[in-house]
């Protein structure tokens, strides 16, 4: 249920952001048609864009799930040192040390 609410907030936030962008483009073309100088956007468009941004950020942060810590050792705190040394991908059974066993000793 909570995920549905956050998805709805995200959708409303994006629609509101697109509306703010469209309103800004309309305001700019209005100024161009009336040959007025562009100084800044009206306050309501700026407020709508900022509110939409915060709505989107809130929804995305809640939909993203659990974050992991930045520290690389955070996942490794509960492991012992023996676990680090025991890595199956480093096991080698066919190595050149076996051939040393079967060589004839050098006679002098």
From TrEMBL:
Question: What domain of life does the UniProt record list for this protein's source?
Answer: Eukaryota
A molecular-function term among this protein's GO annotations: inorganic cation transmembrane transporter activity
The cross-references to InterPro entries, in alphabetical order and at most eight, read: MMgT
Q: How does it sit in the membrane?
A: Multi-pass membrane protein
| A Pfam family per the record | MMgT
The UniProt record lists the keyword Transmembrane: yes
Sorted alphabetically, which keywords does the UniProt record give?
A: Endoplasmic reticulum, Endosome, Golgi apparatus, Magnesium, Membrane, Signal, Transmembrane, Transmembrane helix, Transport
Q: One cellular component GO annotation, for this chain's record?
A: plasma membrane
Location in the cell = Endoplasmic reticulum membrane; Golgi apparatus membrane; Early endosome membrane
Q: Which region is the signal sequence?
A: 1-25
Chain segments annotated as transmembrane = 41-61
Q: Which PANTHER family match?
A: ER MEMBRANE PROTEIN COMPLEX SUBUNIT 5 (PTHR21181:SF7), PTHR21181
Self-association or partners: how does it assemble?
A: Component of the ER membrane protein complex (EMC).
Its function?
Answer: Part of the endoplasmic reticulum membrane protein complex (EMC) that enables the energy-independent insertion into endoplasmic reticulum membranes of newly synthesized membrane proteins. May be involved in Mg(2+) transport.
Please report which protein family the annotation says this sequence is part of. Answer: Belongs to the membrane magnesium transporter (TC 1.A.67) family.
Write the protein's name. Membrane magnesium transporter
Q: Which organism is it from?
A: Ceutorhynchus assimilis
Source taxonomy: Eukaryota, Metazoa, Ecdysozoa, Arthropoda, Hexapoda
